[in-house]
Design goal:
The complex is a heterodimer of chains A (255) and B (453). Chain A is of the alpha/beta class and 255 residues long. Helix content of chain A is 36%, strand content 24%.
């Protein structure tokens, strides 16, 4: 297929009438590990949710492999932030991983032997085979993160979105995630990862998007992840944009 | 049992079962109050339906209640979205407004000519299970069956939606519609339950079984079944007590004039029975229950006292090992800070296990006791050494730090600890070697002086 995994055309996203992403325009090449980097509040998670079609766009258009994301759900895997769910929910690690197969199963069909086997394989590939039947509340934070990763693997997608998978995890989990990323790269998949740790960007990603409410720079890591671009991303030069956004919100909510 | 009581029993137990199952999802999604809103908002719907139809026609009353409940929930999300009111405040406002409107309509109906007396709609406030007749049971059974079928069909979808809404949406599930279906089931059950348990108590039928069932299991499927059973049992018990079974008639109030036994109201009794089951679950459920947690705490405390005693014995004997001398109990007591009573308890316990020979003023380790004491002391010192070498904690602080952890260590942790220490150039410590204490062994007195007492 010739269409790129993600094509974003002039996208603006707003929360509560306040724009959080301005005029994003980028095309992600296939088969790359892509890091989405930027300061807190830069709109990294928002961008991922917009690409997944979880948010309404204020303007612009996003295409996944050449079509609107609503038509391409089966090609997309998702690792949400760990804090977004209630880990006291009465399910086991394996139950959660099997949720990755629900999209393929469709309405009413229950997961069967094939799905259970796939879930076991996905758990094993992130080093969690021994914890399959454990209630998710009794897993450590890093183990919970690996369960989420295994669930995304069970989606068997061509394009993955991961929202801060490295946040607050132990060394074993970090290694499991890195190994998974490498394996996905070897299989020719495209992975977009929201990432906080600037130290490891060069090691993990071959493509990078620098984001701070607008797209500061995007491209191969060697040429894009430069100190000049980082200054532009993390420096205080965007305050004008912030002020403008606040002014828009104030005016519109006064109406 | 009379035929009419049997019908009531059948109706309420079906209701209890299906309300428990559907309510589980509300409990898990932290939307427990939605059932309350549906029930309260249903009251004006009932009244309006009565005013329109002009008679107490069961199905049309339920239709009116259903419509009003849906409107109530809709108003809440409208208020949340378009004003700055938070959800809990919006729930409080809408719930009481609809209920107030319903009560006003009720009194209008009661007073208006031609309608008074016949309506009997005020039974919907607290419910009147005794009025359930055969025809109602058929309706309840049909609706319960349909609701359970939908839950069984959409089990996978509901599970995903309740656990991770965003992920479900990213997979392409129409989460908005699924949410509406779930809400619809809740509404149907609420409305069917109103005549029996009433507006005020319906929420308890939805919430209590799920909340109680959560204590007994970590599996969603089991939780749904358990909640259904709990709801059914609570309903049966409540109904039977209200009909004069299960309790001695002497305890029930009697009418002053006739001396006849008066029944207690069914709805409140069902809720009380449910609350009793909930309380029992909180106390006695394995793992999560209060008693189970208290027991495991107590077991740890007992084990800690035993291990501390043996280690103190070992340290007293250390200069003369492998010989074991009599240890003076006074000296032994000073070896540590003991909580009142625990020292004597640990002595008796160790003696009963054959680890020490206990005399009035002294004690002596047996062979088995020495073996156990050496194992415990070794573990303690391994951990202390790790804290000093690995975590860089000052030697005079490690004794207490080690104490707070070592009793939790299992076989795998100990193996990991040994491997780590071998790497840290402490040297390999053989399986039976007890390393020397990494700090001066202090008595309770010196510990107090050092500020740890």
């Amino acid at each position: 297929m010739s269409a790129p995994p993600v094509e974003i055309h002039d996208v603006t996203v707003a929360y509560d009438r306040k724009p959080v992403l301005w005029d994003i325009d980028v095309t992600i090449p296939e088969g790359k590990m892509v890091g989405i980097v930027g300061p807190n509040g830069a709109g990294k998670s928002t961008l991922i949710k917009a690409m997944l079609g979880l948010l309404a766009l204020a303007s612009g258009k996003i295409e996944i492999f050449g079509r609107p994301s609503a038509q391409q759900r089966h090609l997309v895997g998702y690792v949400p932030q760990r804090e977004t769910v209630d880990w006291d929910f009465p399910v086991t690690a394996k139950d959660v991983v099997m949720m990755g197969t629900y999209g393929r199963l469709g309405w009413f069909r229950r997961p069967g032997r094939a799905e259970r086997q796939l879930a076991d394989e996905c758990l094993a590939s992130v080093g969690m085979a021994d914890f399959a039947d454990r209630q998710i509340h009794r897993l450590s934070g890093g183990q919970q993160q690996r369960v989420f990763l295994a669930r995304a693997l069970a989606q068997q997608a061509r394009l993955y979105f991961m929202d801060e998978p490295f946040a607050g995890v132990d060394a074993a989990t970090e290694q499991a995630i890195v190994a998974t990323l490498k394996q996905l790269r070897a299989e020719g998949k495209t992975v977009l990862v929201v990432h906080h740790d600037l130290q490891t960007v060069r090691d993990y990603f071959d493509w990078v998007m620098l984001l701070n409410m607008r797209l500061v720079a995007a491209g191969p890591t060697e040429t894009t992840f430069t100190s000049a671009n980082l200054d532009a991303t993390y420096g205080g030069r965007l305050t004008a944009l912030d002020v403008a956004a606040e002014a828009v919100r104030q005016r519109e909510s006064a109406q | 049992m009379t035929y009419s009581t049997f019908m009531v029993l059948l109706g309420t137990s079906l209701l209890g079962c299906v309300a428990g199952v559907v309510g589980c999802f509300s409990v898990l999604r932290r939307r427990a109050l939605i059932g309350d809103v549906l029930a309260h908002a249903a009251l004006p719907g009932l009244c309006l339906a009565y005013l329109v139809v002009g008679e107490r026609h069961f199905a049309s009353l339920l239709g009116g209640a259903w419509l009003a409940g849906v409107v109530g929930v809709g108003v809440i999300s409208f208020v949340c979205r378009w004003t700055r009111t938070k959800e809990d405040a919006a729930i409080g406002i809408v719930l009481s407004t609809f209920f107030g409107f319903g009560v006003v309509l009720l009194s209008v109906i009661q007073r208006s000519a031609g309608l008074s007396g016949k309506a009997g709609l005020n039974t919907f406030i607290f419910g009147q299970a005794a009025a359930i007749v055969r025809r109602d049971v058929w309706l309840i059974a049909g609706i319960s069956f349909a609701v359970l079928i939908v839950v069984a069909l959409l089990y996978k979808e509901f599970k995903l939606l309740s656990f991770d809404n965003d992920f479900a949406q990213a997979q392409g599930w129409p989460v908005g519609w699924l949410d509406l279906v779930m809400m619809g089931l809740l509404t149907v059950v609420t409305v069917v339950g109103l005549p029996a348990v009433g507006v005020v108590l319906m929420a308890a039928m939805l919430i209590i079984p799920g909340a109680a069932a959560r204590f007994w299991t970590d599996r969603l499927g089991v939780m749904l079944l358990a909640a259904g059973m709990i709801g059914m049992i609570a309903s049966c018990v409540g109904t039977l007590v209200s009909a004069g079974y299960l309790v001695p008639t002497a305890l029930l109030p009697t009418a002053a004039a006739s001396g006849r036994v008066m029944g207690l109201p069914t709805g409140p009794l069902i809720v009380l029975a449910g609350a009793a089951i909930f309380l029992g679950s909180v106390m006695f459920a394995p793992g999560r229950g209060v008693v189970a947690q208290w027991w495991s705490d107590a077991r740890l405390r007992r084990r800690t006292a035993e291990e501390n005693l043996l280690r103190a014995m070992y340290e007293c004997n250390e200069p003369v090992l492998p010989r074991c001398d009599d240890v003076d109990l006074g000296q032994l007591r000073l070896q540590r800070d003991w909580r009142p009573g625990w020292f004597n308890w640990a002595l008796r316990r160790a003696s009963a296990r054959g680890w020490i020979e206990l005399a009035t003023a002294h004690a002596r380790l047996t062979d088995a006791g020495l073996h156990e004491a050496a194992r415990i002391t070794r573990l303690h010192r391994l951990w202390e050494t790790f804290l000093i070498k690995g975590a860089h904690i000052a030697p005079d602080h490690v004794d207490r730090d080690a104490d707070s952890i070592e009793h939790f260590l299992g076989v795998t942790e100990v193996a990991a600890l040994e491997a780590t220490l071998a790497q840290k150039h402490v040297g390999r410590i053989g399986a039976d070697d007890v390393p020397a204490s990494p700090h001066a062994i202090s008595t309770a007195d010196t510990q107090r002086e050092a500020g740890h007492g």
